[in-house]
Specification:
Aminopeptidase
Length: 310
């Protein structure tokens, strides 16, 4: 039986235990993680916490819509024991009784066959680190190997960076192009990284020049057998010296011959995808679902919740 839980009704200890044990579990669904990245979230729970679905929502004009928070690439239904298509669809039927619109990225194990018309595949890249470094390196593209030689000739070196250094590096580079990244987003990101490090579920990697200039840094979220490249940043000088190529290769070397997956967390952007493929990463498909749940007799209200305004 499915039940809708308001946030204060969720048993977070049992919730987190399920996310930790779920066959399709991901760190984005931990309660403490959602408490940071989502301003509001409720949940749908199957039976005795046999399967759960976090419901991050926004409210506009008194109407609620299900959305995808920043820094949570994949959500959807998580379960310890496989559930059937009818059970998956039941979650969405219950959502339809409370929400006017749903737009979310579902985890790879959350495909809904009879909702194929509402699903769009999205691409994630992952690299298995279960071989030695040289064997993994043999799968690198010519371009990646060429950039690594450039980085080595430049004398780049690994170091440490603070959360503030990482965020500031992003803010003055890529961040300038992102209108949605306001002070509130950066504050939430800082809280998230600090919490993940405190929970021993993340670390910051950094690369410096010979002159001790920070060229590249990235926060990796570590959980469920994955090292997720959650938040990378690189300076213009770092691009010229292939600092991000060097950072990733150093990470691969340090964690080679392990059971970990390096999860690049994307990307649908061709140039970024090419960078990930250059390390021999393979495609992992997850799903985007968009459903307008308002009655067709309310077209003007439906327009308030169009994807462009979500």
């Amino acid at each position: 039986m499915l039940r809708y839980y308001k946030h204060q009704e969720i048993d977070k200890e049992r919730w987190d235990q399920l996310i930790a044990e779920a066959g399709n579990g991901l760190p984005y669904a931990y309660s403490w993680y959602l408490d940071v990245v989502a301003a509001h979230w409720d949940a749908i729970v199957l039976g005795d916490y046999e399967a759960v679905m976090p419901i991050p929502y926004k409210q506009r004009f008194g109407l609620r819509q299900l959305y995808q928070p920043f820094f949570a690439q994949q959500l959807g239904v998580f379960y310890k024991i496989s559930i059937n298509e009818a059970q998956k669809e039941a979650f969405w039927k219950l959502i339809g009784t409370r929400y006017v619109r749903a737009h979310q990225f579902l985890n790879a194990g959350c495909h809904i066959a009879n909702q194929s018309q509402n699903l769009q595949p999205r691409v994630n890249y992952v690299l298995s680190l279960n071989r030695d470094h040289q064997e993994i390196r043999s799968g690198y593209s010519k371009n990646t190997r060429r950039n690594l030689r450039k980085a080595e000739l430049a004398g780049l070196q690994e170091g440490t960076a603070t959360v503030d250094q990482l965020i500031e590096l992003f803010r003055v580079t890529k961040g300038r192009q992102l209108e949605d990244f306001d002070q509130q987003v950066y504050a939430r990101l800082k809280r998230l990284i600090v919490l993940c490090i405190r929970e021993k579920k993340g670390e910051i990697k950094a690369i410096y020049s010979q002159e001790n200039e920070l060229l590249a840094a990235a926060f990796f979220l570590c959980s469920h057998g994955r090292m997720i490249d959650l938040f990378p940043a690189v300076s213009e000088e770092g691009r010229k010296k292939a600092a991000m190529f060097y950072l990733i290769d150093q990470l691969v070397q340090q964690h080679s011959e392990s059971s970990l997956l390096l999860d690049f967390e994307g990307s649908m952007v061709p140039g970024v995808a090419r960078f990930y493929r250059g390390f021999g990463a393979e495609v992992e498909t997850y799903w985007q679902i968009s459903r307008n749940l308002l009655p067709w007799r309310l077209p003007s209200i439906r327009n308030w919740f169009s994807p462009a305004k979500a």
